[in-house]
Amino acid sequence: MKPIYFFEEGSGTNRQLLGGKGAGLCEMTQMGLPVPPGFVITTEACRQYYASDRKVPASLLEHVKNSISKLEKKTGKTWGSRNNPLLVSVRSGAAISMPGMMDTILNLGLNDESVDGLAISSGNRHFAWDSYRRLIQLFAKVVFGIDGQLFEDAIEAAKRANKVTLDSELGDSTLKQLVGTFKEIFAKQTKREFPTNASEQLELAITAVFDSWMGERAVIYREKNGITPDIADGTAINVVTMVFGNRGGNSATGVVFTRNPGTGLKHMFGEYLVNAQGEDIVAGARTPKQISVMRKEMPKMYAKLEATCKQLESNFKEPQDIEFTIDDGNFYLLQTRNAKMNAAAMVKTSIDMVSEGLIGREDAIRRIDAHNLEQLLHRTIDSSATRSATKVTTGIGASPGAAHGVAVFDVARATSMGESGTSVILIRDETRPEDVPAFFASAGILTSRGGKTSHAAVVARGMGKPCIVGASNLKIHADSRTATSESVKIREGDMLTLDGNTGIVYADQLKTNAPKMTRDFKTILGWARAIKKTGVRANADTPDAARLAREFGAEGIGLCRTERMFNESDRIGLFVDMIMAKTTEKRKEILAKLETLQRNDFTKILRAMEGRPVTIRLLDPPLHEFLPNRAEFSERLAKLAKIKATKKLEQEKEVQRRALELAEVNPMMGHRGVRVGITFPEIYEMQIRAVFEAAISLSKKKVRAMPQIMVPQVGSVAEFMFMRNIYDRIREEMSKKHKSNISIAFGTMIEVVRAALVSDKLAKAAEFFSFGTNDLTQATFSFSREDVESKFLPEYMAKDLIETNPFQSIDVSGVGALMQISTKAARAAKSNIEVGICGEHGGDPSSIAFCHKIGINYVSASPHRIPIAIVAGAQAALGPAKPRTSKKKRGA
Amino acid sequence: MKPIYFFEEGSGTNRQLLGGKGAGLCEMTQMGLPVPPGFVITTEACRQYYASDRKVPASLLEHVKNSISKLEKKTGKTWGSRNNPLLVSVRSGAAISMPGMMDTILNLGLNDESVDGLAISSGNRHFAWDSYRRLIQLFAKVVFGIDGQLFEDAIEAAKRANKVTLDSELGDSTLKQLVGTFKEIFAKQTKREFPTNASEQLELAITAVFDSWMGERAVIYREKNGITPDIADGTAINVVTMVFGNRGGNSATGVVFTRNPGTGLKHMFGEYLVNAQGEDIVAGARTPKQISVMRKEMPKMYAKLEATCKQLESNFKEPQDIEFTIDDGNFYLLQTRNAKMNAAAMVKTSIDMVSEGLIGREDAIRRIDAHNLEQLLHRTIDSSATRSATKVTTGIGASPGAAHGVAVFDVARATSMGESGTSVILIRDETRPEDVPAFFASAGILTSRGGKTSHAAVVARGMGKPCIVGASNLKIHADSRTATSESVKIREGDMLTLDGNTGIVYADQLKTNAPKMTRDFKTILGWARAIKKTGVRANADTPDAARLAREFGAEGIGLCRTERMFNESDRIGLFVDMIMAKTTEKRKEILAKLETLQRNDFTKILRAMEGRPVTIRLLDPPLHEFLPNRAEFSERLAKLAKIKATKKLEQEKEVQRRALELAEVNPMMGHRGVRVGITFPEIYEMQIRAVFEAAISLSKKKVRAMPQIMVPQVGSVAEFMFMRNIYDRIREEMSKKHKSNISIAFGTMIEVVRAALVSDKLAKAAEFFSFGTNDLTQATFSFSREDVESKFLPEYMAKDLIETNPFQSIDVSGVGALMQISTKAARAAKSNIEVGICGEHGGDPSSIAFCHKIGINYVSASPHRIPIAIVAGAQAALGPAKPRTSKKKRGA
Known about the structure:
homodimer; 892 residues; alpha/beta; 8-stranded mixed sheet; 8-stranded parallel beta barrel; 35 helices; 33 strands; 46% helix; elongated
């Protein structure tokens, strides 16, 4: 085991061993870039430290000693001596950067002797003593955890005594006195003297860095973020020869992105300060200058910086985020890492780097964080606006995008105000199908209950409207048209802004930015489409959604929910009548009317998706979902009871009785989907006939309609065959009636666990499968999403009992195993069976990768996630990039 | 294909080809018993008939013709002739008997000529003409479906004209006239002459039998009962030479069981009639005599019958149910089949037949219908009592046994009346944990809502109390202490009798019979225990239940539910306080009190099961189940609101708020089991500690306590490990505190689908698995049992969409597949892991057979089903008997 690598030795790709920072320093050194000499103590050494019960092994100290000697030779300086002293900085650096790790200590190696040496070699006593007092201050704070205020107070006292206002105005001798005072504070607080031996300083610093790896903040962060030892195991330590940006007017320090991380434009983006150290840029006491100013102020250095950026990009094939220091006219690089950037910049830089020949199209696709692409399709709150904004409350961001509008607490009012042009935010405890017209009229929806699959969430997502649900701290008083959060009271008419991405509700109207479907974005999608193997369809229930999906690149509709169509104001009444019908005849009569409406719906959506498949799902929810809410009804009844009984009251009571009859203990697992289709076959018959009629009438108009019909909640072959027989009969009737031989595929959802387990037999009877991963996940975990997301799931995530929310990313070991069992059995029974997925996972990159892996034919996602699905599909098809090669394999 | 077998040719074991009746006739003939000559037209011929579009193939007619010729030779009679005419009966007979099949036609072959021949050969003109008019009447009714009343009216008219009152008083010439009238009726109704050609009669009869196979009633019966073609495919036809029990005082007809089917006692049991035909016994115009009377009345024939019974039993190794006819002193057997008997008789005859050397112990076990054994452990309603009883309503029989008592509609009253010695039937819409004390005090429980896993059902079953749930036609008005069913109004205090087996509620007190755990029954159980491989444990929560289970043969407790213990009146209050606790400290304080109580509970049950394992399940239900029902609470609140606010009201409101906070949309898939254990670890800690303390204190008293601790609702390894860490810590603490090294196995339920899918990893961490097949079935089907059993499951069963109720018998393709996946993975990871099942399927014979097949170590069932489990376990271990051998392989 080699515990230490000099920068010229370590492999620039071995972040696991050298940490991210260390690997970067090695790479840059080996590229010939000006990095101050230094070395990395490996993560292996860190693990060794813990294996030795938190003792730095003697062998490591020996290695450190030898490495310092080597550094002395390289630099011509001497460790801890008056004679041109060697000073170093010590920085932690794990494979993944995380909070809670030890801050950098500068100027290590200074003591009562070498401070003089520094004064001599720099010709600047003030600088030398200021560096020394900084060391003591930092060392006390970082290594021993002493309250920094004690030192600040001492400085203040010195300034008062000397009647100056700025630190820099303190004279050499005052600084010297301050060093004395600092040492006293140190001794008092730590019950020991400040270590003036340079090697002792270094050993203490090393111990502190290693210890910070197991500090509470770092441990919790790793647990929360699933950073397991295979990702990062221990921290490395970077020991770097000090260079000084604060040595006068020919010195400076700065941070720079090689390209603009907000726009992706190809120009350096950053700040610098003349005569300053790194921390001064962040501290804010002096305002840094834009990097572009440097071109005039320090033209030579600017040119050097520009050349360096180019060299770095050409090496790392990624825009970089770097730290540099100019020490008396000498340019040094202190850090480089891949620049974090927003989705727009990611897209722009991908396109640019391809045209510059820096990377190929495949890598251009690979480097994009598909998740973030959704940003580009929704309005976003301008980041500048959030800082000073008042937060009203926080819920679950259930449908992304930003929206502002006036608070309205009832559906009728929201509809009328919205339709008359006011931007409205609808606020409810929860929503129900009959509220859907108000969704159309509102700019955004906010509820105090429910999770990401609550009615509000699903409907809003389908419409692409910003929505926040489960804001449980918001107490809504619909009667008085107010709501109260932790601190704020909202009245009807108050202006609010919703951030559907973060779930934050702001007071007032914040500045928002419009979405951009740029030419670059379209180019990237084009490349991705050419690469991906998995089909991408949309979950869309309306012609508008279908058109939007098509614009974003959908190759069809994978899930068209028919129940939504019943919620529009012209038909919800009819639907309720249908449920209330006392005889099959009465029900059929009403269904005939609904059939006309459904045929129109289907005609419109099939036309909008002409030439592409449209998978129509038969009615899924339990019937009682269409009846008024029981609790609301009881309240109303209580009020009505005071007045004389009327015929209307009697009617309402009857509806309520029926609702009670249909009510279920666990509606998620109750009388719904195909089970309703079996007990009331006339409903499914009506829907199937409507699809045929729509498709046939379109085909007679030479419009290429491609519907597929899908049965939800199937758990057994017998259930599917029951529906299949009805379908076969209707197809026969249609073919006779219209002399048409239109073929409409008939398939099943796989969302009941049992369906996955009997897929061999189901596949023989069905033309296609579509995984309903929302329900499948609920059933596999026995998690009711509405309950768990608001109750214990957050605690599970916090306690690391679950890695990722299984409703966002497919749970590979459980749900994924079922999908594999099912797909394998289905393909064995019918090799060409079409298998898709239409749960919300269809828009999640890691789920898409899994689907690609097990050979799913297509994913279906909400329109705004289509671009994500396309890029993620391409990434899955590409697989990971070949690792960047480095001359150094592991080290020497 | 040989379409016809004479009785001396056909194989007695080939019921598929020859039908049950035909095979029996062949077997008896070949045993040398006196069966009238005859032949069987095979089920193959029936299938051929359908394959030929319902035409009797000419080849078959040819075969029939030849067979009749053969019969003429055998009997010396002539077909359709004056000269000693050959007459036959025609009977249908499939492999399985079913309703809707054609009735027997007697006297076929009679016509205007042969009737004279019969008169001559019998020397009885009256008999001959009476036989002829019977043929026409039966033929018209059975083959052509003509209303029988037309013929009855003609007979009545003849009797009036002749001024007689009995059919038998009609003279020869009147009967001859009647034959003429009957022919006219026949011709008028059918638009054709009555066929006087014997072969034409036979052909028409054959067609009618074949047609009846596809008759509506038969088809529906087969669909409902899952009789698929591999079980029975087509019907055979038996053509038998007529013999006559109505030829005078030396003739008779009768039906006899070789042993008493009600008691199993070894004596002939049946009835006979002198000078009568078979149908007269059933018709009820004359009262048949007990078969014992025959010993004096016809001693020779009685001896012949007795010898025949013995010979049949020794051949079939089963008590038989036979039909015989004595024709002028000649004894004939017309049918034999295995006797149907009740559980007591089944047990008694098994024991007797073994001691008689007729069968071995293995076959004695095999022949028992394990399902029925439960009859022997519960009171049953005397069958004589139900006939005249008034049915109040019918619900779901959720816990077997019979109980009577006075109707009581509230819990407090039921408790006080029950405790003061009145037999009480508790009637509620549904029950909740706080009602449990009333269960103890009641003789039976009746609810209008819920299914077989509703609270009432599960609790009652655990206590062995008769219970009927989901009696949805019963409208309960708790306020006025009445309930109304379809027809009856029940008032508090009305006497009712519940039949927990059938779900029927009767008015008044019906006679019931006490259970019998006879010596014979114990002997059978002893034999079964020696044979079975699968262990049998009990689901028991109380020391009483444990003792009962032990008495019935349980080898341990496979499921001890700890939540039940919180429902007793001395602790439910504490438990509610615990839920209401605002801080962890307060909660811990209350838990400390509960811990003392739990330790006592555990001590008692472990002591009752000394030396045998007791698997204790940690708290399973969601916390809100312990709080008052929301709807009830609202009502109460509404009443209370009228009076002045009190502190009590405020407290109740707070409880209600908490209940609302904890309420769930789908409680079945919500915050329960291990999920509660994770969010409130102090609850599980308390329970684990209580188990350790109880076991250690017992072991110090030299009582061999063998607890196991089981975690419910586990879906992931992380969840289990979270609890395992707590368990390990407590074990450590206990071992230090008590210097005890007691080992308590720590395992997991497998009731969440995901757990079954990650069993390889779970098995590494758990010492045992126990399948919770109730929940696993719900999750696999996405069926909420409470909802589906009362809503669509009956319709599913009726429409043949599901073969058996998956909550009663394990669904092999779905749930069974998961169990196999899980068991296989678990054993691969840890070969000696103990795998049990503690769902209600543990008491179901076919589920036990499946468990045996996949190598489950034990099943756990409610105490009253332990004997079923033992016998079913033995049957599974034995496998099917070797088929009875027959000299004739297939036919000739």
